[in-house]
Amino acid sequence: MFPSFVDRRRPGPARRGPGAGLWRPAALLRRSLAAVAAAALAAALVPAPAAAQAAAPVRVVVDGRTLATDAAPFIDQGRTLVPLRAIFEALGAQVDWHPAERRVTAQRGSRSVRLHIGRRLACLDAACGSAALLDVPARIHQDRTFVPLRFVATALGAGVRWDAAARTVYIETNPAGVPDPGSGVAITEPGTGARITGPTRVQVRLDGDAAASAAEVRYFLLDPATGRGPIVARGSSPTAAYTWLPDPLHDGPRFLAAAVYDRSGRFLAGDVVPVTVAAVPQVALRGPAQGQVITGALELAADVNFVAVRVRYERVDPATGQAVTVAEGDPYGPLTWTPGLADNGPALLRAAAVDRLGREHTSPVVAVEIQVPRRLALQGVSSGARITRPVNLSASANFAVKQTRYILRDPGGAETVLASRDGTSSLRWIPSPDHNGSRQLLVEVTDQNGAVHRSAPVDVTVAVEPAIFLETVGPNQVLAGEVSLRATSTVPLTSIAYELVDGAGRARRIAGGSSAGATYTWRPAAGDAGNWRLRAVGQTAAGARVTSEAIPVRVYTGTLYGPIAAMPRSQFLDFASRLAVESYRKTGMSAALQVAQAILETGWGQSTPRDKYTGKVSNNLFGIKGTGPAGSVVSNTWEEYNGVAYRVDANFRAYPNLQASWDDHKRLLLEAQRYAPFRDVMHDPIRGAYALRRAGYATDSQYPAKLINLMVQHQLFRLDEVEP
Question: Is the CATH number 1.10.10.10 carried by domain 569-720?
Answer without folding.
Answer: no
